[in-house]
Amino acid sequence: MNATTTSTPPLRRVLYHHRTQGKAVEGVHIRGITDALRAMGVAVDVVSVPGADPYASPKAMSPTQQARWWMKIVTRLPEPLFELAELAYNAVAGLRIVRYLREHDDLELIYERYSLFLFITVWLAKRRGLPIILEINDSAAVHRVRPLHLGWLARRIERWTLRNASGLVFVSGLFRDRVTQAHGHIAPSIVTPNAANIDKFSFSEAERRETRAKWGLEGHVVCGYLGAFVPWHAIDQFVYRIADRLKATPHLKLLLVGDGATFDTVAKFVHDRGLDQQILLTGRVPHDDVPGLLAAMDLAVLPSAGDYTSPVKLFEFMACGIPPIAPDFSPIQEVLVENQTGWMFKAGNLDAAVDAVIERSADRERLAEVGRNARAYIAAERQWRHNVLQLIEFKQAVTQPAALPVHAVAG
């Protein structure tokens, strides 16, 4: 697809609606889409939960710590009450969107980050004759960390919403397949993986030397990790498995960036095993500080991921020219080319992940070559402007239904 822009904006105005706190990975995605649209001259307005601002200066705190007081109360509600609060948010969103629509008669597209129990935006769009495209990152059809209590209601609302939207954007083909299997007929859809902007993940050789000197990494091959320390990311299990092999590979150091539920346990394990000089734990850092830490890495590992998700950190590693070693889940296979832009191991087999890290760390020239390939791929195909160009093309197609098949794949 041609990534060039013209002097005439492809759309006059877009409303981006979401019900998230706008922090962490969700904030990265929101900023990626809105910034890319604005760079093309499109006026973009964001309507969200009151107090949620993805452009607020990121802090070295978790999204829950950054939330407003009332958000903290809501997230701690028992599950049935939490889901009723999600449902009640339709009234809040409806009022805010109706007010917005009264003030803007040049709106050409509503783009919404879909959330469970949220239907009001689609209902209003249909009533006003406006195209609405939903970005699907969650669903009642897939496993969730927070189990559903009112699953029957969530599924019923979701089925109506996904059938009545103008179009749907899924982050992976597997995710779309599962949602389609659960709901049958849904609106036309595309598959668009996540992205990363090259300019935000570029660094000089001087910056690399500075970061490596700061963390005592000179002369070593550095394998990095970027993300939350939570059970489903399995970084704790990866550390436990690689620990006994690190003393036999003194050229290799781990630089693990992030925090979370398993962080303290991992930190204690590393200290007790006397590995503090070979496994470096940064704790939580602001997102803007991440590129500096990435500058020190020679390769990166993703021990696990959701089997239907598109990990943003995978794209950020590649944008930096850091070759990733990742599980062979279907969404990762849609992006990564084995031995060309990274390497994959059998999902769930962390011993294989350890083997791959140790084996690849022995060949610095090959790491650099694969890293360059990965960065070139992101530059050419997977920056946020590419996702937005696909979105604009899709919007044009769903407003001309005769030209669009039921399922259209982009990416």
From TrEMBL:
Protein's name in the database: Glycosyltransferase
Organism this protein belongs to: Caldimonas brevitalea
GO molecular function, one term: glycosyltransferase activity
Residue span, Glycosyl transferase family domain: 208-375
Superkingdom of the source species: Bacteria
InterPro entries referenced in this protein's UniProt entry, alphabetically: Glyco_trans_1, Glyco_trans_4-like_N
Matches recorded under PANTHER family: D-INOSITOL 3-PHOSPHATE GLYCOSYLTRANSFERASE, GLYCOSYLTRANSFERASE
Glycosyltransferase subfamily 4-like N-terminal domain: residues covered: 27-194
Keywords: Glycosyltransferase, Transferase
Pfam family, one: Glycos_transf_1
Source taxonomy: Bacteria, Pseudomonadati, Pseudomonadota, Betaproteobacteria, Burkholderiales
